Every structure is written in C-alpha cells, then in structure tokens.
Amino acid sequence: MARVYNFSAGPAVLPVEVLQEAAEEMMDYQGTGMSVMEMSHRSKAYENIITEAEADLRELMNIPDNYKVLFLQGGASQQFAMIPMNLMKNKVADYIVTGQWAKKAYQEAAKYGKVNKIASSEDKTFSYIPDCSDLPISEDADYVYICENNTIYGTKFKELPNTKGKTLVSDVSSCFLSEPVDVTKYGVIYGGVQKNIGPAGVVIVIIREDLITEDVLEHTPTMLQYKIHADNESMYNTPPAYGIYICGKVFKWLKKQGGLEAIKVHNEEKAAILYNFLDESKLFKGTVRKEDRSLMNVPFITGDEELDAKFVKEAKAAGFENLKGHRSVGGMRASIYNAMPREGVEKLVEFMKKFEAENL
Ligand SMILES: *Cc1c(COP(=O)(O)O)cnc(C)c1O
User: Fold this and answer.
1) Around 103, how many Cα atoms within 13 Å sit in the side-chain half-sphere?
2) pLDDT band at 167, cuts 50/70/90?
3) Pairing of strands 144-147, 5-6
4) Which residues are known to be catalytic?
5) Helices (DSSP H) in the chain: which residue ranges?
6) Nearest-CA neighbor of 358 among 283, 285, 287, 299?
7) Quick check: 91 and 109 in contact, CB under 8 A?
8) Which residues line ligand 1 (CB under 6 A)?
9) Residue of the nearest CA to atom 3 in ligand 1?
10) pTM of the model
11) What are the backbone angles phi and psi of residue 134, rounded to the nearest 5°?
C-alpha cells in the first residue's frame, strides 16, 4: 500500500481506518450480500445507516432538538442559492465577504434580493478577517452570512460577528467538525463534506426549525426547499447514499478520537508545527495575519514564483501531494484537515527545512 501525504484542499484526505472498513464492506455490507452502493435507500439496512449517521453527528456537535440535520446534494455552491430562496422573507441580506466562496455566495444571493456587503477583506487579498464587532447590520436583514473558514486564503473567524440579533448563516465547508461549535449561535450551519468529512456529493445543512417554512421565494424548485427535505428526513428523493455512509463512518472515527474537543487539540498542535516553522524560516513565509490563521488551510510562499514551482515539484516527488496554492493566489497551500496525521505535517516541515538549506 503506497499512500502519499495528501494536502489537497478538497476532495481531501480521509482516515485510513474508514477507507479500510469501507473496503472490507464493499462486496457484502453486514450480511446483506450487497454493497451499500447497490442498496435501496428505503431498506432497513440503509435506514439504520442514515439514522445512525445523524445521531452521531448530533452527539458530536451537541445539536439541539430544535435544529434539523439535512443531507443534501448540489455541493456547498447549491446552498448559495438555496439560502436566499428559503430565508429571504424581506428580500434583504447582509454578507461579510472574506474570500472567493463568500463572494460567490454574495453574488448568487444578489439575484434574489437586496444584498449588502457589510464588510470585506478584499483590499488585502483576503489575508485577514475584518473587525465584525459593530457592523452596519441592516434593520430588515433576513440574515447575516459568513464563510467561517476561507479555504483558499487560509483565514478563519476566531470570533463570530455581532449580528445584532439577526440570524447567522455560516458556510463551514472547510472547518466542519474541526473543533467544538455552539450551534445555538447560528440559524444555519452548512458545508460540503468533501473537505473535512467525506466524499464529494453530500452537503450537510444544520438549520433551526423556525427557519424552515413554506414561505419561500416564488418559483423555488421543490428540490431547493428546506421544508421538503426536512419533512422527508432527507429522503424526498434518493439521497447521496454511499457518501452519507462514509460520512457516518467518519463521525464514528471522530467519536473514537475523543470528539471535537480532542480533535481541536490535535489540530492546534499540528498547525503549530507548520506555523512555527513558517515564522522562523528565512525562505518560506505565511500569507495570513497571525491572529486570523486557519487550523485547516495553511497558505505560504517563498516570494519567488519559480522557486515556489520548484518546491511543489520536488515535494510531489518526495510524496507530498497537492501543495500547489489555489490558481487565484499562487504559492503553496497545505490543507491539514482532521484526517492528516501529525506525522504528515512533521515530515513536510522536515522536507521544507531541507529545501530551504538547499535553496537559500
Ligand atoms: C469548496 C468550498 C465550497 C464549494 O464547494 P462545492 O461543494 O464544490 O460547491 C464552498 N465554500 C467553501 C468554504 C469551500 O471550501
């Protein structure tokens, strides 16, 4: 078995134990004589899979009873439209734009109502999180929107914005289950699972029940109504069945690691190994304001594009995959999600030290 250290931003590394278990169950899932891929989503076996997945997620995140958990499709990007279509009762929303994903969500919402960009960090290439303690929140805003961890730029909200009582909607795609969260602070928490939880094709939406209504924008497709999915327990149509099964295994793996408190400590230690090196390196440097650094996505540069390219190439040859930065920013980015072992980060830093010695 030749596994590489995979620093991809997404789809991304998954726990080896989960992949092995799925492999063992591939031909015959628990005596059913079939793969989960081949199974009716209405079967008893599958009902157990999705019910347990939801229960484990609720336990991990301590999700209160007045929130629904939905397993949907269409990726995080589909939510950029689904959120305004379902939540814009006054047709007004406030957006905090801290990166490409927040910007795309903002642009999509603008199709459906009046959207206000109440803060942005675009002036410095999204390398920081703006002060959100006293923003001009619109009186009639249906919600305030953030992207909590900016996958491309490597910034993270360490404190949630003061929404002055308005509903907070958060895209947590790239920090999902990386640390404990207080669900009650949000109206909607959602994310595509392919960054930190499972295979592409599933998006999880955690939504407070009072926000799920029939009062949606005119012509909202049936498939894009939260109420339809909530009333049908994510089974209005065929759900992304195999993907949900893998997510369920990752939830169990996380519980075995000690839950979100424990994974946070692990993530902080891992990230510190890389950030501490970046802070002392004479060749590499981080691109994000220190207090806003993400634990999940770590962008860095040498300051010389040719040297960056050489690094990415030599790193790949040494078994460190997908370190090239996003096409919009260049440089390098190491995504070090939950399933990236500490050893992967330690080895990467060793390799960076060696590269520095050879190229300085
Ligand atoms: C990857 C990503 C998206 C887009 O996800 P898709 O599932 O490809 O639509 C949106 N938001 C964030 C924060 C992401 O990291």
Assistant:
1) 12
2) very high
3) unpaired
4) 101, 171, 195
5) 16-24, 44-61, 75-87, 100-109, 226-231, 241-256, 259-280, 305-317, 342-359
6) 283
7) no
8) 10, 75-77, 101, 147, 151, 171, 173-174, 192, 195
9) 76
10) 0.98
11) -150, 70
Mutational test site, ligand 1, from 103, 173, 189, 202, max ligand atoms within 8 Å of CB: 173
Q: What average pLDDT does range 136-153 have in this prediction?
A: 98
Whether the CB-CB separation of 352 and 277 falls below 8 Å is answered with yes
Contact in structure between 52 and 248 (CB atoms under 8 Å): yes
Domains and CATH numbers, the chain: 16-256 (3.40.640.10), 259-359 (3.90.1150.10)
Tokens standing for residue 183: 């669900």
**In the block, which residue shows the tokens 């990467």?**
348
- Residue 174 CA, closest ligand 1 atom number: 15
Alpha carbon distance 200, 58 (integer Å):
21
**d(Cα 328, Cα 326) in Å, to the nearest integer?**
5
Helix, strand, or coil here: 52? helix
Q: What size, in residues, is the chain?
A: 360
The predicted-structure confidence for 306-350, as pLDDT tens digits, reads as follows 999 999 999 999 999 999 999 878 899 999 999 999 999 999 999
Query: Which sign does the torsion angle of CA 83, 60, 74, 77 carry?
Result: positive
Quote the tokens at residue 207. 């939504």
**What is the C-alpha separation between 174 and 227, in angstroms, rounded?**
26
Angle, helix 259-280 to helix 241-256, in steps of 10 degrees = 80
